[in-house]
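Exam revision sheet. Question 4 asks you to relate a sequence to its structure. Input first:
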Amino acid sequence: MLERYYQELLNFCSRTARNRDAAADVVQESYARVLAVQHSGQPVPEPRALLYRTARNLQIDQHRRSEVRGEALQPDDEETLSAELDSLAAPRACEPDTAAESAQAVSALLATIDALPLRCREAFILHKFDGLPHAEVAERMGISRKMVEQHIKLAMEACRRCAGDLGFRAAGASTSRR
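Answer key, structure tokens:
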């Protein structure tokens, strides 16, 4: 986890910190806190999102502490920093709510695929997940190309219904048709 997100998180924190050393301190503290949560046995399904949220909260806390200590910046600098902190957010995909929604959507789609008839599911997986063309799927399964197309069409319709039930359009659903 450390190597994977360190530079990205450091860049994120450097945008609001006045120097790179302060940003590095925030990143280090963020990692320490997330690792402590993981070592406590509590599951962390989205460590990246937790790192970003922790880093942002630490930066806000630092800003508040400096105000209390009377180390406030000049009024213009303070307003700028405050506006930067308020506008700075982790990428939307890292937000815990988005991660949870995404996990739920994936689970629902996997359940939908799992509920497909066996041959339909097999054709769909070979085509969409393994990337095989219809002709090769037909050859592997010992069925006609037309039957493969019907299986894939049925599976795609089931996935679209599932996505519709979840209240969103499946990403690339209209562009991934073959």
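Marking note for examiners. The chain has eight helices and no strands.
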